[in-house]
Specification:
Distance between the termini: 19 Å
Helix content: over 70%
Largest sheet: 2 strands, antiparallel
Strand content: under 5%
Number of strands: 2
Order of helices and strands: HHHHHEHHEHHH
Strand order of the largest sheet: 1-2
Number of helices: 10
Length: 233
């Protein structure tokens, strides 16, 4: 996690992990500790490894477009489901700025978690803040967009329908690329309840409350099951 967050090559990282695993298992059999093998603290050893490895710009550029497209797919799908897509110049610039801030925060946080021993409570608080900051920035951008007038474009019903279809294809492609279901399950939990609840005779306020309960409950259940499955492995 530390090396990946430092922008190092994924294949080189896997090779180092494999070599370290073999050496650590041999050291454990001989009754030796980690310091005997690496000669320093794990944090210092990771920093030394990171300093010796080249920055993998090519590998980083491979992930950034996928992340950027994925983030915009989430945003556009949400806008399309919640009444239609209307994008201003301020929102486009704001979204890109928030994306850069998010990537910086994620990289810094992962390096910190990898190089420090944190309790489960502190770790949860850190990741809660990590998730809350981008949400707060997006909410702030939404209010700023309403007060500052900049050139904008509004999609018609056909444009919204095409966008929804493209977003679904993007989520499927990312799921196949990453070999996980998360890019399909998470947007389904986020947006499908709202779509189905609109077909009911419930008041808008009740629809919103029920949708929020299903969304948070669904996300909690999904990540709980994923975490439980990881522990079994």
């Amino acid at each position: 996690m530390y090396l990946f967050s430092s922008g190092k090559n994924e294949h080189e990282i896997e090779k180092i992990i494999s070599e370290l695993e073999d050496h650590l298992m041999e050291a454990e059999k001989d009754g030796k500790d980690v310091e005997h093998l690496i000669g320093q603290s794990p944090k210092e050893y990771m920093e030394q490894l990171a300093g010796e490895m080249a920055f993998d710009l090519k590998g980083l550029l491979k992930y950034i477009p996928v992340l950027l497209i994925g983030v915009y797919a989430y945003i556009l799908l949400g806008n399309a489901v919640q009444g239609g897509i209307e994008y201003s110049l301020l929102k486009v610039i704001g979204d890109l700025t928030i994306f850069i801030i998010m990537m910086t925060l994620f990289a810094g946080s992962f390096k910190y978690v990898a190089s420090h021993t944190l309790s489960k409570t502190k770790e949860r608080i850190l990741f809660f803040l990590l998730g809350s900051i981008p949400v707060g920035l997006f909410v702030g951008l939404m209010f700023l967009d309403k007060t500052v007038d900049t050139p904008s474009i509004e999609f018609n019903p056909l444009g919204n329908a095409i966008t929804i279809g493209l977003c679904i294809l993007i989520f499927i492609a990312i799921s196949i690329w990453s070999k996980t279901w998360v890019s399909i399950i998470v947007p389904a939990i986020l947006y499908l309840p709202e779509v189905f609840l609109r077909m009911t005779p419930l008041d808008k306020e009740i629809q919103m409350i029920v949708s929020m309960v299903i969304m948070f409950g669904g996300l909690f259940l999904y990540f709980f099951l994923v975490n439980k499955q990881e522990k079994i492995r």
